[in-house]
Every structure is written in structure tokens, then in C-alpha cells.
Amino acid sequence: MKVFGFAGYSGAGKTTLLEALIPRFVAAGLRVSLLKHAHHHFDIDRPGKDSYRLREAGCGEVLLVSGQRWALMHELRDAPEPTFEEQIARFSDCDLVLVEGFKHMPVPKLEVHRPSVGKPLIATDENEHIVAVATDEPEVVVKLTRRPVLPLNNPAAIAEFILQHQGFV
Question: Which residues of 23-51 are buried (b: 16+ CB within 10 A; e: fewer)?
Fold first, then answer.
């Protein structure tokens, strides 16, 4: 499995870009999975549902299964968060694992940057894992980095760049 990441501050448009890229990767014949890091408490289960109640009662894991999908919820219960490598290893075999977040993991990644968000560029000389920057203001960002700068509003060009970078074309 090849791994490619997306980094950027909240509000930059990482998820929106991924929504536009994933169908292009699938159309290219790739099996794609995604790992998204959440920096805050989250719950995919709803209070009052049986699975929620049983997990809250103390189950370490709850596996929900239907004819369309399955989901495994694992409670850490004060255990440390699994390492990045442990998380990637949980995926079924696929061609490409996309990673949203994990800014400092040593995997190739694209920075999604909007100057209007008011945050600094992550693609500095010290962060060699960022291989390109996608932005809505290329004329501003090109002056700040030596990385390739891609137009954020052109997901086809971004997809092509990633496919080439990962060796799929």
C-alpha cells in the first residue's frame, strides 16, 4: 500500500479537496482507503443506540455489521493512541491510503493552504515531507516555497500530480 498525506490548518479545505480527488483515484482503477486524525473527542455512535449503550457499559470493542458495511469501535480507556504504523496496518489491502492530518508524519504529503485562513505555510525547508502545495492564491504561495504550487480549484491537476508522484502513471 502506498501512503499519501494531506496537511493544512482547519478551514483550508482538506476534506473538500479529498472529496474531489477520491473519485478520480477510483476512476483510475485504484482501491483507496482513508485515515483521518481527529484532534478532539469524537464519537461515531449515537447515544441511546444499542451499540452505544453496550460500549458505555464497558465493552472494549463493538463491531457493527450490516449488509452494506461494518464498523469496529475500539475504546482506548486510558491506553495510548495507536501509532501511525499500527493504524495503517489495520486497513485491508488497497492501493493507496490517503491520510488527512498527521502533519509531522514522515510520509509524502500535499499541503492545502489558504492565505486567507491566516495561518503560516507548513511547507518550510525543515518539513521535507511536503512535496507540493495546493492553494487558492498560487501567486502568493509560489514566493514562499520551493515546492511545486498547484491550483486548489483544479482537482484534476492535483490528482494527476499525486498519481505521478506515487508512481501510478
Answer: ebbeeeebebbebeeeeeeeeebeeeeeb
- Quick one: pLDDT at residue 104? 83
Neighbouring residues of 161: CB distance < 8 A, sequence distance ≥ 6: 110, 132, 148, 150
Q: Which residues contact 10 (CB under 8 A, 6 or more apart)?
A: 117
Grid coordinates in use for 158?
492535483
| Residue 96: strand pairing partners | 2, 32
pLDDT at site 17: 98
Reduce the DSSP state of residue 74 to 3 states and report it.
strand
CATH class as words, domain 2-40+81-165: alpha beta
Strand (E) or helix (H) holding 70: strand 70-74
pLDDT at 129: 94
Which of 80, 75, 78, 127 is CA-nearest to residue 106? 127
| pLDDT < 70 stretches in the chain | 39-40
Burial of 8 (0-12, 13-18, 19+ CB in 10 A): buried
**168 is written with which cell numbers?**
501510478
Give the N- to C-terminal CA distance of the chain in Å, as an integer: 16
Q: What is the reported pTM?
A: 0.90
- Asked if 117 and 141 touch (Cβ cutoff 8 Å), the reply is no
